Amino acid sequence: MRLRFLVISSLLIASIGVGLGLAILSLPSPANISKKLGFNQKVRSYLIANPELFAEMANILRKRSSQNRVALRKSTLTALKRVVRSPRGLPVMGNPKGEITVVEFFDYRCPYCKQSLEVLKRLVVDDPNLRLVFKELPVLGPESVYASRIAIASREQGKYLQMHEALMAHRGKFDQKSLVNIAREIGLDTNRLLADMQKPQVQAMINEARLIADRLAINGTPAMIIGDEVVPGYADLVTLKSLVLDARRKCTTC
User: Fold this and answer.
1) Record: fold of 83-250
2) pLDDT 10s digits, 131-158
3) For 170-252, where are the alpha helices, taking DSSP H only?
4) Parallel, antiparallel, or unpaired for β 130-136 and 100-106?
5) What is the tens place of the pLDDT at every residue in 112-137?
6) Would you list the domain boundaries of the chain?
7) For the chain, how big is the Rg over CA atoms in Å?
8) CA–CA separation, 152 vs 196, rounded Å?
């Protein structure tokens, strides 16, 4: 058991370069070199006899890496708290002055995002102190980008939420003709809409969401931020309510 511990410790030290630093700082005597060679031979023999140690070491490193990643994400979220929670000119769903903010990163062509909308609508209905902020994160190609741009442009005519729901409900093509027809059906002036889509602030809003997602290591949709937690992937209503409750318990300034 002691040798097993020494072997794992030696491998971990070697993996992060500490062993090299120690070797440079303290040059060993010939006697120590001989002892070290003998120890190294024991380590080598033990590893050959117990190759599963490599997997054990990899799991330890993976766990440490995951813990570091979570800590970095939380510190980044703290630093970006204000911009992440800001709707940046888009209307919010739920209570605009709600004490708890749920932020959703989504793509209109993402099937799990479509499922999430109904869950989120129920969440804000059940919790009157909740505000839902949308972050357009088109990750599924040019058609997704076009859908996000047309949705953002619809805010100029006060119909972002209607357009958002219509695009989430849409199951057909996401080409220009299809999306313009959707816009027309909900009462948008399509000529004005197509002109508004060209405004630089529309693409700037998408670029900002991408930058935030990159800083928070969000690489897919849907993804949500509730309190200081990043929630990747689809989450059901029970899970979301539990996360909101946890955020409310931790909340000091919200």
Assistant:
1) Glutaredoxin (3.40.30)
2) 999 999 999 999 999 999 999 999 999 9
3) 176-185, 190-196, 200-215, 237-250
4) parallel
5) 999 999 999 999 999 999 999 999 99
6) 2-13+29-79, 83-250
7) 26
8) 9
